[in-house]
Amino acid sequence: MTERRLRPETLALHAGWRADPATGAVAPPIYQTTSYQFRDADHAANLFALRELGNIYTRLGNPTTDILEQRIAALEGGAAALAVASGQAASAFAVQNLARAGDNIVSGTDLYGGTWNLFANTLRDMGIEVRFVDPADPQAFANASDERTRAWYVETLPNPKLIVCPIGDIAALGRPMGIPLIVDNTAAPLIARPFDHGAAIVVYSTTKYIGGHGTSIGGMIVEGGNFDWSAFPQRQPLLNTPDPSYHGTIWSEAAKPLGPIAYVLRARTVLLRDLGAALSPFNAFQILQGLETLPLRIVRHCENAVKVASFLQARSDVLSVIHPSLQTGQQAERAAAVLTGGFGGLLGFELAGGADAGRRFIDALELFYHVANIGDARSLAIHPASTTHSQLCAEEQTATGVSPGYIRLSIGLEHIDDILNDLEQALDKAAA
Ligand code: PLP
Which residues pair with 35 in a beta bridge? Predict the structure, then answer.
């Protein structure tokens, strides 16, 4: 099948798989195996020397996981993808695949808390400096860069602020400098297409919308195939100088017969081999099951969230509602340019009654789950000031967009009337 011409609804069901060559099974089998029998000694040697691609050991690759990788690469319009054990592993590998001790990256400040910690502490302890800038200011990325800057990093739709990142403007500034833009598109799969805006790498926590069922942690790194690593040998030494861990392989050269996949090739053969954050085949299967319906689900998430936003706007006990559909000026222009498939399922609002009302509201919810997650098929709610952001002081909470009465919602797939009824009764109880 010529997959590039197929639409997302079709790719989500068909890309990367037709039927099991051994049994004819239509559903992707769970290849729950650690290792694979080599045909003969030459076959084994060829696989290890990368003269031939194939299965060696499930830490490096697995047939079930391969289907998921191919399917997400096809949906994203990328050249190749690498599945990893979690979204956190995807973010870490995405940076470590370009930067080593003494190097730096520049990142937008508006990040998932786990990514912030990884960048501000763990990568720093490994000798990789992360310089934080306001993602709304593309020029700030260039200003913060020097000759040791290996990548820029942003989130498409970061919560809780939900201010859409100007991916195209940032990517365009970095490209002539040889600096690729890595985009965490976890909150906006299918509705934003970062490669169309010049991003070089997309990362996902597949734990969220892509799985959708809330059963399985996973991550994905997708290479756009649109960034010429070999054109910037000084800027990107990890892909352009001999790798002593692989007999002096130069990854940009080694990838040439395979396609524009040098970045994913190195991430798999070096980082996955050495750091070992492989996705289990069972989780790959689960995530594939969810992915099959993502194109349908994401539309409903977006539709329901817009309806919730207008419902909340009409309430006198709600001071403000944060959703990309309600933004104005430059923020609205950027949201419309990047979120071409809908404004997403995340939403925030500020209760007039402050922190006490926030806690009362959360306790009164009956349908919404009170969890620290997003992107589930079910509707979810959290009061960040008393949970995810409770370790921050008041000024830090404000800087990250969390005020005392702020509530974050991840709007699910339930009937909109049931969602609104639950919000209404909880708001009434919080105000009483
Ligand atoms: N990126 C974003 C935007 C997230 O929201 C999360 C998790 O909440 C992650 C990355 C990390 O993903 P995981 O929990 O799968 O490690």
Answer: 57
